[in-house]
Specification:
10 helices, 245 residues, three-stranded antiparallel sheet, 18% strand
Length: 245
């Protein structure tokens, strides 16, 4: 569970998009899970195989608002389906049950047949996480997943990410601009400034003095308006109101 920390414009989103090849690198090689994804700005032939292992959670949810939530979740299975099933969006009973189980794991199973656009921001973000579950992603790349959420929804989404990391053994790389959340939920932080790594170490060491040293006047972006983050319950249990299977 690693936080990617930085003020606006530090390069967090760019880095996350380079990993699955959503953006092309100007030069050099991008490797994920020991396999090359792109080289000198070009995707390699088997990049799709690596992409199957990566779940991506966008800041703006990236759901089709007019489709039911369960269909949005089932999209995570399309990479394993035959082309004609992908075209027709056909899913088996077993696959639908898998999607419902994933939705139950993030506490939104009751919304299965609602249109995605009717969900709150926090619920839509959890639907995106359920999509990663049915995809069976080994790594979740979360790009500012709580930036547009209220404090309570932000806490719930971070708790879900923590659960996926601890209970399912899924690596999580989450970009944040709120240092409180990095310290509370991520043992390790990689801090970026102007596209360069300026810190890689324990999140607990991110003191105001260190942030000022790393970011100067921009350090205030990382601490201002950061909501108070309550301590996790013992053993990382999920607070009441959010049920995880």
């Amino acid at each position: 569970m690693v936080a990617l920390l930085g003020a606006s414009g530090s390069g967090k989103s760019t880095l996350l998009r380079l990993l699955p090849g959503f953006m092309a690198a100007d030069e050099g090689t991008v490797k994920v899970l020991g396999r090359t994804v792109q080289e000198n700005g070009r995707l390699v032939g088997n990049a799709r195989v690596v992409r199957r292992e990566l779940g991506f959670v966008f800041q703006q949810f990236n759901l089709v608002s007019r489709l039911p939530v369960i269909i949005n979740v089932l999209v995570g299975l399309l990479h394993r389906a035959a082309w004609w099933r992908r075209m027709l969006m056909l899913f088996t009973v077993g696959e639908r049950q898998l999607a419902l189980e994933a939705m139950a794991s993030v506490g939104i199973e009751q919304t299965a047949w609602q249109r995605a656009g009717t969900l709150s921001g926090g619920q839509q973000q959890r639907a995106a996480l359920a999509r990663c579950l049915v995809q069976k992603a080994r790594i979740i790349l979360a790009d500012e997943p709580i930036a547009s959420l209220d404090p309570e929804s932000s806490r719930k989404v971070m708790e879900v990410l923590t659960h996926l990391n601890r209970a399912r053994g899924c690596t999580v790389l989450v970009s944040l601009h709120q240092v409180d959340f990095a310290i509370r939920y991520c043992p390790r932080t990689i801090a970026l400034n102007a596209g360069r790594v300026v810190y890689d170490g324990p999140s607990s060491a991110l003191t105001p003095a260190l942030l000022a040293q790393l970011y100067g006047a921009n350090a205030s972006q990382l601490v201002e308006n950061s909501p108070a983050v309550p301590p996790l319950m013992r053993d990382g249990a999920i607070p009441s109101g959010l049920v995880l299977a």
